[in-house]
## 1
Amino acid sequence: MTPYELPTPCYVVDEGRLRRNLELLQTVQRDTGCKILLAQKAFSMYAEYPLIRRYLAGTTASSLFEARLGATEMGGEAHIFSPAYRDGEFDEIAALCGHIVFNSFAQLEKYRSRCPSSSIGIRINPQCSTQGNHTIYDPCAPGSRLGVTAGQFRFNELDGVEGLHFHTLCEQDANDLAVTLKAVEEKFGPALPRMKWLNLGGGHHITRPGYDLPLLKKCIRHVRDAYGVQVYLEPGEAVALNAGYLITEVLDVVENGGITTLILDTSAACHMPDVLEMPYRPPLRNSGLPGEKAHTYRLSSCTCLAGDVIGDYSFDRPVQIGDRLCFEDMAIYSMVKNNTFNGIPLPAIAAMDENGDCRIIKTFGYEDFKSRLS
Ligand SMILES: Cc1ncc(COP(=O)(O)O)c(C=O)c1O
C-alpha cells in the first residue's frame, strides 16, 4: 500500500528513519557503556517495540499503565518515575519495574519497604535552568514540583538508595547537559560516589542533525569514571525524531478578510496538541513559509475551537479540496496525546517499511470515542 492509499487522517511511522535513529543511539551505548531507555511518554507505538528492543536497553514509564506496556510489549529493563505513587498501584509497579525513582523523601519512606527486588532512586532538581523559552517544560523553574533540591536533600538518609535521576532538558544539545552536570556535581557531589547509577533523563536531541555527539559521550564517560556509576539516558523524542508523518485530507477551503483557510480532517487540538501547547509550527512537506511560495493558506480543522490553527503555509500551486497534505515529525508526542474533542475521529496508525510500503496497524471508530465517555 502506498501512503496515498491510506485512510486519512493517519499517523505513519517510517521504520527506516526509526531504525537509523536507533542505530545512532546504539553507537552512544556502545562507545560509552551507558544504557538508553525509551521514554514511552513520547512514543508508545508498541507495534514497533520489537524493533526498538533490538537496540535499546528497555523502557521508562510515568505511570502504572506505561510500566505495564513496557514490561509486556518490550521487555528489557523497566524504569519508572512519578511525582507520587498511588498506594493501590504501588505493588504492581514494584513487581514490574526494576528501577523506581521517587520524587521526595516522604515517598521514599512510604514505599521503600515495598520494593523487595527493585533498585531505588531519588529524582534531584539541580536548579539549573538551561531552557530559554519553554518555561512550561522547565523542571528547574522556580517552585518546580519535580525533584528534590540540594537544600532539601537528606544526604544522611540514603540507605538503600542506589541511584539519582535528573531530567532538566527539552530538545537540547550536549552543551546544556554539560552545564547541568556541573551543577549536579556541585550540589549533589557528596552523594554521587555512593550511587550505583545516574539517570540523565530525557530531552537530549541526540538524533537531530548537528547534535554534539562527542560532547555527550565525554559527559557520560566523565560521570561514569568519576563516580563509578552506570549511566542511563531516557530520551523520548530522540528515538522517533523525524520518523513519522500525519497525512490529512483537505475537506474545504474558506475565505475571510483576505485569509484563506484549508479545513483539514486533522486538528492541532486533537491530533497534535503540542502545536498549541508548545507552541510550534510543524513541518509540512512541499510547503514554504507564508508568502514564500505563490499560494498561502491557513491550515485548520473541523473543531469548534477558533484557535485550532496548525499554522500558515505557502504552496507552489493552489490547494484543492480532496488534496492530501503530509505533516512531518509526527511520531513523537502525537498519538500518545491525542483525543476525540468534538467527536473528531482518532487518526489511524500505520507503518511504512524500508521500501516505502505502508501497512495499517490500527484504525479507530465510534466505539473508541464512546468508550471513554459514559
Ligand atoms: C522524566 C522524563 N524522562 C524523559 C523524558 C523524555 O523527554 P524527551 O522526549 O524530550 O527526550 C521526559 C519528558 O518530559 C521526562 O519528564
## 2
Amino acid sequence: MELQNKSKILVENIKVLYKPGMSAADIDRIALRKAHKKISAAFDSHGENLAVYRKSLDARRRDSIKFVFSVCAQIDARADKREFGDRDIRLCVESDFSVNYGSARLESRPIVVGFGPAGIFCALALAKHGYCPIVYERGENVDKRVASVERFYKNHALNPLSNIQFGAGGAGTFSDGKLMTRINDPLCSYVLSELVSLGAPQDIMSRARPHVGTDILRNVVAEADRCLESLGGEIHYNTKVSVSRGGLYADGVKLPSQTAVLALGHSARDTYAELIDAGFLIEPKPYSAGVRIEHLQSELDAAMLGDFAGDETLGHAEYNLSERVGERGVYSFCMCPGGEVVAAASEEGGVVTNGMSRHARDGKNANAAIAVSVLPSDYGNTPIGAIEFQRSLESAAFAFGGGDYTAPMQTVGDFLNGKYGSEPTVVSPTYMGGRIKSCDLHNILPSFITDMLETGLRSFGKKIYGFDRADIPMTGVETRTSSPVRIMRDRDTLEAVGHSGIYPCGEGAGYAGGIISAAVDGLRAARAIMEKYAPFDA
Ligand SMILES: Cc1cc2nc3c(=O)[nH]c(=O)nc-3n(C[C@H](O)[C@H](O)[C@H](O)COP(=O)(O)OP(=O)(O)OC[C@H]3O[C@@H](n4cnc5c(N)ncnc54)[C@H](O)[C@@H]3O)c2cc1C
C-alpha cells in the first residue's frame, strides 16, 4: 500500500526475552524500540506510527521464554518493491473487501441460509453493498438460544432446533472463540477488524493466538444481527429451510432462489439428506472423532511454564499435540484453556462433547479434544455413511451414559489398562456441571479409534508431564470436529455443481474449518454473487 511518499512496512521476528514481573506494556515498549533501531539501520528514516502488528509467545524453552513481534510502521520513502535489504522487513499489505459489481439484474433479494460465521459475514457483506439479503436461521436469536441451552443443562430437554450447534452465531457462539486459522488469506485480517467493529476485543488484531470467549461472542452476534437489520438486511429465526427438487422452502413457502447461499454448518444432517435427495453432488470427506480430556489448568501451567506458571503476562499454557501412525493421526484439537466441556448435541438421543471458555479463561480446568482421523473407508465411502458413523458413536455414548444426555467418562489409567469405574480424584469433569458416568470407552468407540487414542496418550504424556496421569478424566464423544461431507461447487463461480444460483459455503459445505475460515468463505460467496449481479438498489 503506497501512500504519498509514505510506505507501510512490517518489521518481523523481533524477539523480547521475558523476565518475571515484566508487564505487557514493558514488553511492547522494548519491541517497538528494537523495531525503531532496525528501521533506522535499514532506511535513512526513523519510521513513524510504530505499532504492534502481531505478537506471539514462544514458551518452547522454559529457560528462555520470549515474545516474538511483528511491528508495523510508516517510513517516508517511496517503496515500490516488496522486499528490502533486511529479510525481516517487508511491505505491509492490508486487505479490504473490495468488489467489482456485476451487471446482471437481481430479480429477488439474495437468500442466506444459516447465521453462523459464514452466513453472518456473507449477509453483512451483501447488506453493506446494497443487496438487502434475507437470512433464514433454524435456531433462535442469541438470548432465546442461551435460555434453551440453559434449559437443556437443567432439565436435559434438548431443543433440536436451537442448541449449541444451531441458532444465532451458529456453532461459534458457545465456543472459546479461538480465532486461529491455517488459511493464509488476506481476508482474515478483514474478518478480524469486522469482529472488532462488532465488539470483539481490539487485541485480536495483534495476538498470534487471538480468542474472544463465549461471553463476548454472544454480544458480537447480537450486534451483527442489529447491524444487518440497520443495513437493510432481514433475519428470520426459528425458520428451517428445507430443500427439494422443487427448490428451497421456508415454512412450506417456496423461496425465490435466483441466489441462495447455503451456510448450513457441519451438523445440518436433515438438510444434507434433503440435498442428496434433491440431486446435489455431495461427497464424504475425512474428519476426526475421539474424546475430550481435562486437566487442571494450574498443573498444565506448571508442567509447561515451570516457574512462570500463573504469570498473568504469559497467561495460561496452551498445547498442540499430534502423533501419526501410517495413514491415521491422533491429535489435540480445539484446546480451551480455563474452559469447560460442553454438551454439543443437536439431535435427540445423541451425546456430543466440545469445548468452550469465557474471555477471561478463568475456569479451573483446561480441556481439548483428542481426536483420531476417520477415513471414508471406515464408513463405506458414502456421505450418508459418514453421517451415520458419527451418529452411531453419539447414540452409543447416549445409551452408555444412561439415556438422559449424561456423558460417558473414563480415566486415562482405566482406559490404558482396560478397566473402568475409577473416579477422577483431582480434576472435576465439567460436562453439564459434572453430569458424567464412568464407562469403558472401548465399548463406545471402535478399536481403530481407541488404539490410536492409547498411542496418542502415551506419546503426549512424554511431551507434557502428567498429561496421561491415571486419574485424568476423558469425556465422550467428540464427533463434530469438522464436516463429514463436502457439497461440490464450481471452483470459480462457487455455485453448487449442477445447481446455478446455489452457493454452498462455510464449514458445512466442506470448505472451511473454524470461525475465521468459515467467515472468509462466507465473504467469498458474497463476492461471487456481487461480481455477477448489480446491487439491488442499482
Ligand atoms: C462448542 C464449539 C466450540 C468451538 N470452538 C471454536 C473455536 O474456539 N474456534 C474456532 O475457530 N472454531 C470453533 N468451533 C467451530 C466453529 O464454531 C465452526 O467452524 C464455525 O462456526 C462454522 O461456521 P459456519 O457458519 O460454516 O457454520 P455454523 O456455525 O455451524 O452455522 C450454521 C448455521 O446454519 C443453521 N442452519 C443449518 N441448517 C439450516 C436450515 N436448513 N435452515 C436454516 N438454518 C440452518 C444452523 O442453525 C447454524 O446456526 C467450535 C464449535 C463448537 C460447536
## 3
Amino acid sequence: MSDLIAAIATPPIPCAIGILRLSGPGAAAAVDQVFRAFSGRTMTQAPDRALVYGTLLDREGAPIDRVLATISRAPHSYTGEDTAELQCHGAPAVLALGLEALYAAGARPAKPGEFTRRAFLNGKLDLTQAEAVGDLLEAQTDAAVHTAAGQLAGGISRRAEEIYRELVDLSAHFHAVLDYPDEDIDPFRAETLSKALERGENGLSALLDTYERGRFVARGVPCVLAGRTNAGKSSLLNALLGYQRAIVTDIPGTTRDTVEETVRLDGVLLRLIDTAGLREGGDAVERLGMERSRAALDRAALALLVLDGSVPLTPEDKIAMAEAQRAERVLCVVNKADRGTVVDLPALRARYPALCLVSARTGAGLSDLSASVAALFPQPGAGGGLAMLTNARQAQAVTRALDALREAHRGFLAGITPDAALTDVEEAMGALGELTGRTVREDVVDRIFSRFCVGK
Ligand SMILES: Nc1nc2c(ncn2[C@@H]2O[C@H](COP(=O)(O)OP(=O)(O)OP(=O)(O)O)[C@@H](O)[C@H]2O)c(=O)[nH]1
Ligand SMILES: [Mg+2]
C-alpha cells in the first residue's frame, strides 16, 4: 500500500513559478486542507486535470499565495496514483511554508526520484523509460535530448519486447509439446527454433551496436589532449572552452595533473581531458602526471594529438605519437599555425587521415577542428531511429541476453536436446526482463532512482 508523498518540484531559487507536488491516496483531501478555491468548491469535487484558482494557506491557515491547483486521479496521472500540483509563485519561502502545510495535512517528504519510481512500479513507465527521464534532465546537446526522448517514447522497450514475445512463444510452444505429448499440437521443428534464435540474435546485436553512439550522446565522448610538453595542449583546451581554464606557460611540464571539462563542438559533447605533456624524464610529480595521461588515453574514444607545427618534430613528439595510439581514434592537431608551419604536412596527412591545422593563440582553424570531430562522431537527428542504449546497465542486460541466445544456438546445432537449449532461451528472457524492468532486483531499482532529484 502506497502512502501520500509531497515535494517541491522546482529549483529552490526565486523564479516565475514554483510547483508543489503530491502523489498517493488522499492527495485531493490534503490539498483541501491547504487551499481555498475562489469558486468555493473543494478539490475533492473538482474535475480531473482542471486548473482551479485559489489561495494557498500555511499550516496555521494564513493565506500565503494565490495559486493554481490541479488534481489528476488514478490511473490517469504521471505516477498512476491520485496526484495533485499546486502552481505557486516561485518564491522559495512560500514553497517551504506550503510544503510544511502539506506535511501537516498528512503527506510525508518524497525521496529522490520517488514520483518516477512510483510511475515505474505502477506500469506507467518501464525501466528504460524511467532512465530516459534522468537522461532528459541531464541532456546537454540537441542529440542527447532527441535520444532521451526516443527512449522515453519507448524506442528500446518496443525492440526488446518484440524479441521477448517471440522467445515466450517459442518456449510456450515447446513446453506444450513436451508436457502434452498426446494432444494434437504442431510438433516442434528444429528449423523453427533455429530461425527464431537467429532473429533474436540479430535484433539484440543491432540493439547492442547502438550502445557506443548512445553512450557518447548521453554522457559525452571521452577525449584526451595528448602531446609533448609545450605543444599547446592547455592553450587548445582554453581556446575550445573560451576561457582560461588551465595554466599556460612556456615552461615545459606546466600541466602535471589531468584537467577535465565538457565542451560542445558542432553538437558533439566532449569530455575534454588536458594532460601532462609526454616526454622522457621529468621530476617525480611530472612522471606521475604522465602515468595519468596514459591511463586517460586508454579510456579515451578520441585523442587530440597536439603537435607544434612551427618547429620540426622532436623525439618527444614521436613518443607522444606512439602513446596517442592507445586511444580508439586519433585526430592530429598541428598547432601554432600563426608562426608558420615547418612540419612535413603531407607525411602527417598520410599517417593521420583526420588532421587539422590550427592556432590556439589566434583561434584559426578551430571551426575546422569542430567539424572534423563532428565527422568522427555523427549525431543522430530528431526522429532518426532513436532507440539507442545509453547506459552500462542496459548494455549489460542486452549482452547477457545475446550471449544466452548464442549459447542456445550453439548447443542446439551441436545436438544437445532442445530442452537444454531452451534453458538458455529462458536465461535470455530473464535478461530482457531486467532491461525493461519486468523482472529486476530491488537494489538495481534503488540505484537508478537515487540518481534523480527530490520532486522528480
Ligand atoms: N604562437 C603560438 N604560441 C602558442 C600557441 N599555442 C600555445 N602557444 C604557446 O606555447 C607555450 C606552451 O603552451 P601550453 O598550452 O602551456 O602547452 P602544453 O602542451 O599544455 O604544455 P605542458 O603543459 O607543459 O605539457 C605557451 O607559451 C603558449 O603561449 C599557438 O597557437 N601559437
Ligand atoms: Mg599544459
## 4
Amino acid sequence: MRIAVPKEIKNHEYRVALTPTGARELAGRGHQLAVQAGAGEGAGFSDADYQSAGAQIEADVETLWHNAQLILKVKEPQPEEVARLKPEHTLFTYLHLAAEASLTQGLIESGATCIAYETITDNRGGLPLLAPMSTVAGRMAVQAGAHSLEKAQGGAGILLPGVPGVAPAKVTVIGGGVVGENAARMALGLGAEVTILDKSLPRLEVLDDRYQGRIKTVYSTADALDHAARESDMIIGAVLIPGAAAPKLITREMLGIMKPGSVLVDVAIDQGGCFETSRPTTHAEPTYIVDGVVHYCVANMPGAVARTSTQGLTNATLPFVLALADKGWQQALHDDPHFLPGLNVHAGQVTYQAVANAFDLESVDPASVVN
Ligand SMILES: NC(=O)c1ccc[n+]([C@@H]2O[C@H](COP(=O)([O-])OP(=O)(O)OC[C@H]3O[C@@H](n4cnc5c(N)ncnc54)[C@H](O)[C@@H]3O)[C@@H](O)[C@H]2O)c1
C-alpha cells in the first residue's frame, strides 16, 4: 500500500500521525511510506529518523497526496487538504464532523473514503482513539490549574499540597470519566484533597473501589455543585454527554460564592464548556479572569505536549493503521466490528448516523459498503 503522512497545517498543531517506530512497522511489512519533509519536527522526530525507519521523505505536498492510497493525519483536513482528496484516497484521522457542516460537505464531494479516529469503539464501550488524548488533557489540567493558582497568574497564591502545618488545596473534578479520573489521580499525587462529582453511580463505584477513599466521590446534584463552588480552590470541568453540548454546571452567579483567586479549568471546552463563563483560549494566552476567578479553557490541550501526545495517539492508532495497510479498508473494516463505526463518509455518502442526523442528510449503513 502507498501511504502518506502529511505535515499537519492546522494552527498550533505540532503532532504527527505516525512516529518513526510506526514507520518501521509499515516499511517492514513491505508498504511504501512517504512522509512530508518536516512532518515530525513539532513532535521531535527528524526526517532522518523516518528515513532510517524505511520511509521516503517527500518535499512536495501535492506529489505526496497525489501518489498516496492511504493518508494518515491527526487533525481534520483543512480546506486546502480537502481540495486534494480524490475518490481513490482513504483518509484516517480525527474528523469530528457533526460540528463541521462545510467539512462534511467537502468530504462528501471528494468521493474519498474517510475514517474517523473518534468513532472507533472497543469491547468495553469506550472510544479507544479518543482516550489517549483525554488522558493527556486530564493530566495536564492539574498542571495548568496548579500554575494558575499562583499569585502572578491571578490565582489565590496556593500551593496544591500545602506544607506541614498548612492544609492542601481542595480540588473538585466534575465528571469522572477518562479526563476526570486522570486529573484526579494527578491532583492526588500532588497532595491535594480531591473530590470527584459524577452523575453515574456505577462510575463513582468504580472510582471509590479503585482509590479506596483517597478520592472522595459525590453524586452530582445542584447542591453538590454549590458546595464545590464554595469550598474548592480548583474545579476541573470534565463532563461529556456524547453527541451533545456540555451542560453549564457552574453559572456566572455561582462565581460570586467562589473564593477569590480560585481556578476553573474547563477541559470540556471543546464541547462548548461546562462553566457558563468559559470561552475557548489558546496556549498563547490560556487564561483570563472573570469576577476574580481564573479560567483556563484551552480547547486543544494535548497540542502543548506534542511529543507525548503523538506517542500516546500513535500507540492507539497503529494497530488500525496496520490493518488498513495490510488488508485494504474494506476488508479491515469488514473484519472488525469496532473499526467499522469509524467509517464516516464513503464515495459521496455519509455512513455514520449521528453525522447524517446533524445535517439532515441520508446515511448509508457502513456494513453495506464493506460486504
Ligand atoms: N480541551 C481539550 O484539549 C480536551 C482534550 C480531550 C478531551 N476533552 C474533552 O473532555 C471532556 C471529557 O472527556 P472524557 O473522555 O473524560 O469523557 P468520558 O465520557 O470518559 O467522561 C465523561 C464523564 O462525565 C460524566 N457526566 C456527564 N454529565 C455529567 C454531569 N451533569 N455531572 C457530572 N458528571 C457528568 C459522565 O458520567 C462521565 O463519567 C469531553 O468534552 C472531551 O471532548 C478536551
